[in-house]
Amino acid sequence: MTAGLKSTVGVLWNSMISMITDLVSWDIPAVILLSFVLAVGFLLIILSCALWSNWLPLLVALTFVIAPLPNAIFAHCGGDDLSSEYEGNPAVDVGRFITSIIVVTGFALPLVLAHAEVIKPTASVMSIVGGGLVYGTILAYSQVFKQDADEF
After folding, report:
1. What is the DSSP letter of 27?
2. Are 106 and 131 in contact (CB under 8 A)?
3. What are the backbone dihedrals phi and psi of residue 80, each rounded to the nearest 5 degrees, phi first?
4. Contact, 75 vs 92, CB < 8 A?
5. Which whole-number Å values give the CA distances from 151 to 19, 54, 84, 108, 146, in the listed order?
6. Taking the model in full, what pTM does it have?
7. Contact indicator for 30, 144 with CB cutoff of 8 Å
8. DSSP H helices in the chain
């Protein structure tokens, strides 16, 4: 009985060590790169506000941070992941639709504000590029660190 327990503990220990080495080998550079890109995106958004003393482009950061939430919430309403066919779950589609509305708003809001001459066109461009970097970082993070069902 003790030998079986020792072998089970040994297997668990080896799998934990391999998971840690896999984590260290890929996840840390990915986190560093993603955090750098996220910081550059927020820097561009904050500079688009601070350089012209108009803080309305900061709304873009808010929209791009909120944008993935409907996908995250409605993704759990889907069916099982065992089938390879797309079943067309309406809840998941609603989440994607709401996310797309928020993303389009994030890109369109600086353009509308620049067209109405509320903000400068360069602030609009900086805000759009920064917002794209923020949203792209959030998407990349969710794809890189997505947990597969076969790991468990």
Report:
1. I
2. yes
3. -75, 155
4. yes
5. 10, 48, 18, 40, 11
6. 0.72
7. yes
8. 2-22, 28-50, 58-66, 68-74, 90-115, 121-144
Q: What is d(CA 18, CA 20) in angstroms, rounded to the nearest whole number?
A: 5
Give, for all 152 residues of the chain, the pLDDT tens digit. Answer: 455 544 554 555 455 455 545 555 567 787 888 889 999 999 999 999 999 999 999 998 899 889 889 988 887 776 555 555 566 778 888 888 999 999 999 999 999 999 999 999 999 999 999 999 998 898 888 877 776 544 54
Cβ atoms 70, 99 nearer than 8 A: yes
Which of 130, 139, 121, 102 has its CA nearest to residue 43? 130
- pLDDT of amino acid 5: 47
From residue 26, give the alpha-carbon distance in Å to each of 49, 101, 146. Answer: 35, 33, 13
The set of residues, in sequence order, having a beta carbon less than 8 Å from that of 64 and lying 6+ positions away, is: 103, 106, 131, 132, 134, 135, 138
The three-point CA angle 91-140-61 to 5° equals: 80
